[in-house]
Design a protein that fits this description.
Shape: globular
Number of strands: 11
CATH superfamily: Lipopolysaccharide (LPS) transport protein A like domain
CATH topology: lipopolysaccharide transport protein A fold
Structural class: mainly beta
CATH class: Mainly Beta
Strand content: over 45%
Helix content: under 10%
Distance between the termini: 11 Å
CATH architecture: Sandwich
């Protein structure tokens, strides 16, 4: 069963001399840093995926060549190698007739991908953006990212597929605190 990491308490008032008291912001930052270092979420996405073709299925599509974009609606599914994305609606922006940026919305949008280490990363949110060149996924609105039994939850999560880097909450320009559950047996 995953061990629950308690949410961080507000910083203690400054101690005499202007320093933060024990358990203050410095301790909170150390705890977050330690938590992120211990989390095994550093595995990168399956490296062969980026060389695979992108397949899209949907109930309908509207192609707008003048704006270099296409809009897919109704049970949209996007696949590239082991990466899968499911959404209600996806806007794809193109450059030189190649997809460059995906904006997916849904209740929720779901994502999963196999990692180089054989694990699986799963995510869900109300809105998901994916930039192909940076391989960065931005999850917004009731965002959750899971790898094995480890779990991040916040209003905004940024997942760098290439480097296996996760930012959440304030580090990802979000407004809500982060809730992290880490399985100590991993």
């Amino acid at each position: 069963m995953p061990r629950k990491i308690p949410t961080l308490m507000p910083p203690a008032p400054p101690a005499p001399g202007g320093r933060l008291g024990h358990g203050g912001l410095g301790a909170a930052l150390r705890l977050v840093t330690l938590t992120l270092l211990l989390w095994n979420g550093t595995a990168a996405a399956l490296s062969s995926d980026r060389r695979q073709p992108i397949d899209i299925e949907a109930d309908g599509v509207e192609l707008n060549e003048a704006k270099a974009q296409s809009t897919y609606t109704g049970r949209v599914e996007i696949r590239q190698g082991s990466m899968h994305l499911w959404a209600d609606r996806v806007l794809v922006r193109h450059r030189a007739r190649r997809p460059q940026h995906f904006l997916a919305t849904g209740k929720p949008v779901r994502f999963e991908q196999q990692l180089d280490d054989g694990g699986l990363v799963k995510a869900r949110a109300r809105r998901m953006e994916y930039d192909i060149s940076s391989e960065e996924i931005v999850l917004q609105g009731q965002a959750v990212l899971e790898q094995g039994k480890d779990r991040f939850a916040s209003d905004r999560i940024v997942y760098d597929r290439k480097r296996g880097l996760v930012k959440a909450g304030a580090r990802a320009k979000g407004r809500q605190r982060v809730h992290i559950s880490i399985d100590p047996d991993r």
